[in-house]
Structures are given as structure tokens and as C-alpha cells.
């Protein structure tokens, strides 16, 4: 094998074609609603972590569990990167008609790109939160919220943070 590129070979690098069964695919016996996605701080230094909170509400008639998934997208990068990358997930049980506020940390190292060494780069990023991948069409409807944040400073090796 001479071509080690991952393009077209894993769900992270599929072009416009969606995988048949994307990560998080499945059925539920209830419905959920996502709201109040908050990123803090919305502008952070290159080596800082991002705090994320989101509210998950069970709008159905049955108690159930949802796998809340966070995906990160680089808006611009100096090297090829995935369309989006799973950076956190959590299975949460929510009673019918109730809600849960969830908190996550997205570490600086999760934004690192490989350019002969793991590097952190400034720029604009989009974070997605929901019960499925962004843009997924093969599952029962589920909201996927998104919010942008910016990273300031100069590019630097991850090991220097």
C-alpha cells in the first residue's frame, strides 16, 4: 500500500457522500430537544480549553436515554483535516418531560492538527452539539445546534502549551 491518505476511507473524511450508518445512528422511543448551547469563552488563547454547556429536554412521553455528541469543525487549517471530529459524548438518562443541563470541556489538544508535529493553530471553529452527526439525514429528526468560537495567538507546537 502506497497511499496512506484517509480521504474517502473513514466517516471523518468522506466527501459529500454520507455513510450508510453514521456514528450515533439508532432509534429512540421518545423525542429530545436541544437548546441553549453556550461556549465559554467565545474567544480564547491558542492553548486554552473551551467550556461547553447545553440543555437537553425529553419532549416525549417516555423516560429514555440520549447520547449527546459534540463535534468540532475547523473553518480553516494549514493542513487537511476531517470535515468534523467527535470531541465528546455522554449517554444521559432524562425522564419524560424533564431536562438536563450538561457541561463539557473541549481540551486544546483536541484542536491540534498534524503538521510534522502536533500543532495548535489560531482561527475560527464551529462546535456542534446534538444526538447525531451534523447534517445527518438517515435518522429520525434530531436537532443539532452549532456555535462558533475563535482562537487567537500564533500557531505553536502542542507540547509547548
UniProtKB/TrEMBL annotation:
<protein>
    <recommendedName>
        <fullName>beta-glucosidase</fullName>
        <ecNumber>3.2.1.21</ecNumber>
    </recommendedName>
</protein>
<dbReference type="InterPro" id="IPR050288">
    <property type="entry name" value="Cellulose_deg_GH3"/>
</dbReference>
<dbReference type="InterPro" id="IPR036881">
    <property type="entry name" value="Glyco_hydro_3_C_sf"/>
</dbReference>
<dbReference type="Pfam" id="PF14310">
    <property type="entry name" value="Fn3-like"/>
</dbReference>
<dbReference type="InterPro" id="IPR013783">
    <property type="entry name" value="Ig-like_fold"/>
</dbReference>
<dbReference type="GO" id="GO:0008422">
    <property type="term" value="F:beta-glucosidase activity"/>
</dbReference>
<dbReference type="InterPro" id="IPR026891">
    <property type="entry name" value="Fn3-like"/>
</dbReference>
<keyword id="KW-0378">Hydrolase</keyword>
<comment type="similarity">
    <text>Belongs to the glycosyl hydrolase 3 family.</text>
</comment>
<feature type="domain" description="Fibronectin type III-like">
    <location>
        <begin position="66"/>
        <end position="133"/>
    </location>
</feature>
<dbReference type="GO" id="GO:0005975">
    <property type="term" value="P:carbohydrate metabolic process"/>
</dbReference>
